[in-house]
Amino acid sequence: MIFVGDDWAEDHHDIHVMDADGARLASRRLPEGLAGISGFHELVAAHAEEPSEVVVGIETDRGLWVQALSAAGYQVYAVNPLAVARYRDRHQVSGAKSDAGDAKLLADLVRTDRHNHRPLSGDSAQAEAIKVLARGHQNLIWARIRHTNALRSALREYYPAALQAFDNLADRDALAVLGRAPSPDEAARLSLAKVRSALKHAGRQRNIDARAQEIVAALRTEQLTAPAPITAAFAATTRAAVGIIGELNHQIADLEAELATHFETHPDADIYLSLPGLGVILGARVLGEFGDDPNRYTTAKSRKNYAGTSPLTVASGKKRAVLARHVRNRRLYDAIDHWALCSLTNSPGARAFYDQHRAAGDLHHQALRALGNRLVGILHGCLRHHAAYSETSAWAHRQIAEAA
Q: Which of 70, 279, 282, 365 sits 20 to 30 Å CA-CA off 88?
């Protein structure tokens, strides 16, 4: 066996190769891309007869380079950068750091401690595609929230009547009207017929007249005004923000349709959709972040730990504390939090579980975290047995325990 540390950068990789005793066999800086991966193969081929004899440590689990390493048959360990930093402190306390030194560190780590880390998951290309689409979809939603918050802040500075007219600034009604009247003066000249036309053009089909009257009345209420030059400047930025948010709405809808198409054709989609509170988009996020490698999570506990929903016990001497995990997959945890909230109205068992935790003194988010942890365990059982969710099977044992 040989052990390889790969410290990657945007345009190069520092490689360190050592044997089972920790002796250096080779070290080299390779360029990114096809030439670099060819050089990597040549470097390790001089010291190993089979790809399975090569163990690689690298601080990322994605990218073309990592895919090439995995496809070649090497044992690849994607090590969390935080773990690498802690491992560096184990060897030295001076704080010295270099790319070549980190490559050696990674090689040493997979040589001695790889049993404490997970090898690269064997997710299918379909699951990886769902993950890419789900993350892209969520990124666009986060971008829309940022632009909407910026627009709200700007309107508060010069156009407060618009905030009275529209609760949701990303809504089609708000974008349609603010696009035509981005300033108070233009709103004052906006007739009822023009507002009605704008709403209809934006796609509204019901209650057009009533909604148009509400908007006109709100926009024409008396308000404090800013100087004309400042108002004109803000109006220009509002017009630009409306255009950006409108385009984000279109792209989010398109990506959502693409995500739904990919998710619904996945073999595990029916299992995910059978669980209470999981729809197509939320189910796709959970599947994409967990992946579909059947051997990645050996137990429900390991899946819960990865999700960040299981409690973390810190014990030393007479002190003992049970805390929430803060080092976690943020996207997955966010999806599970939404899943737990949605399940409250779809599952009597989930509702009873949440209510029990609230009655025991847990805050809302603590109870949701506990429910999410339970739902992840149920999901693990469904996937392991290739069975759809059953309300009775999922919660009957708790009802029996309560009755006893």
A: 70
Q: How many domains does the chain have?
A: 3
Distance between CA 215 and CA 213 in Å, rounded?
A: 5
Question: Cα(177)–Cα(166) distance, rounded to whole angstroms?
Answer: 10
Beta-carbon count within 10 A of 257 CB: 9
Tokens of 259: 């995500």
pLDDT for 141: 96
Predicted pLDDT at 404: 47
Give the residue carrying structure tokens 């976690």: 328
End-of-domain residue from the set 90, 116, 142: 116
CA 11 to CA 6: how far, in whole Å? 13
Do 275 and 395 belong together in one domain?
yes
The answer on 189 and 104 residing in a single domain is no
Residues with Cβ within 8 Å of 38's Cβ and at least 6 positions away in sequence, in order, are none
Query: What strands, in cross-sheet order, belong to the sheet with 12-18?
Result: 24-31, 12-18, 2-8, 54-58, 75-78
206, exposed or middle or buried, with CB in 10 Å at 0-12, 13-18, 19+? exposed
266 half-sphere exposure, CB direction, 13 A CA radius: 31
| 366 in any annotated domain | yes
**Same structural domain, 37 and 136:** no
Contact 281, 273 (CB under 8 A): no
Torsion (CA) 190, 195, 201, 207 in degrees, nearest 10: 180
Three-state DSSP state, 164? helix
Q: How many Å separate Cα 185 from the centre of its chain?
A: 42
Cβ atoms within 10 Å of 73's Cβ, excluding its own = 12
pLDDT of 134-168, one tens digit each?
999 999 999 999 999 999 999 999 999 999 999 99
* pTM of the full structure: 0.85
Residue 402 has a pLDDT of 55
> Which residue has 């599952």 as its token pair?
347
**DSSP string spanning 245-259?**
HHHHHHHHHHHHHHH
Please identify every stretch of the chain with a pLDDT value under 50, giving residue numbers as ranges. 404
Please name the residue ranges forming H helices in 189-264: 192-202, 208-219, 228-264
pLDDT score, position 144 = 97
